[in-house]
Amino acid sequence: MEIQLSTMLFFFLSTTVLLASTTFGQPIEPSSNETDYIRTSCNVTRYPETCFATLSNYSDYIQHDPGRMAKVAIHVALSNVTHTANYVTNISQLADANNNNTRESAAIEDCVSVLGDAIDEIHKSNRQMKHLGNWSGELIRFELSNVQTWMSAALTNEETCTDGFDEVVDGDMKADVCARVDAVKEVTSNALALVNSYADTVSA
């Protein structure tokens, strides 16, 4: 699915302002008890230090609630992938104008495409999680399975981006793009792990 990244970026930034003022609130200095909960919960993720660093300032909203923690983690992943996709789009435009390395240019263009798909999938997950309090029983398990599917697909698309550079000669542009997308993969992986963990508690 082709995504108009500039439109998605505008929509997301507008949504982020609203979320910051109405849902999560401004990040504040968390208490020790709250951060202990987040640090412990992050142990289910593949990148616990990244998890703690990106989520600890939202502890006032999370309030020891695994559902809210998964929701914030998806919000963080969406913010990161949108910012990175916008950056890679700009790199792609520069590559088209200045670079004769067609293999590198093709890898960057493919990356733009799959990151657009990842934005779409994480956005759907984010929207679905906003209705978390309206679900119960079998419905919540079904809706969470959709979120798990979308977040897993988003992670696969992000991995496809970096895999596309395997045959590209090492250089500054390749290193820059891959490093940024690797960081996005970490927060997306963590969000998926936290959704999975929450789904397990609901099933139990």
From TrEMBL:
Enzyme class, first EC level, given as a word: hydrolase
Domain Pectinesterase inhibitor: start-end pairs: 33-194
Entry keywords, A to Z: Disulfide bond, Glycoprotein, Signal
GO molecular function, one term: enzyme inhibitor activity
Keyword Signal carried by entry: yes
Its EC number(s): 3.1.1.11
Domain of life per record: Eukaryota
Record SMART domains: PMEI (SM00856)
Signal sequence extent: 1-25
Keyword Glycoprotein attached: yes
One Pfam family in the UniProt entry: PMEI
NCBIfam families recorded: PME_inhib
Similarity-based family: In the C-terminal section; belongs to the pectinesterase family. In the N-terminal section; belongs to the PMEI family.
Annotated protein name in UniProt: pectinesterase
Organism of provenance: Artemisia annua
Taxonomic path: Eukaryota, Viridiplantae, Streptophyta, Embryophyta, Tracheophyta
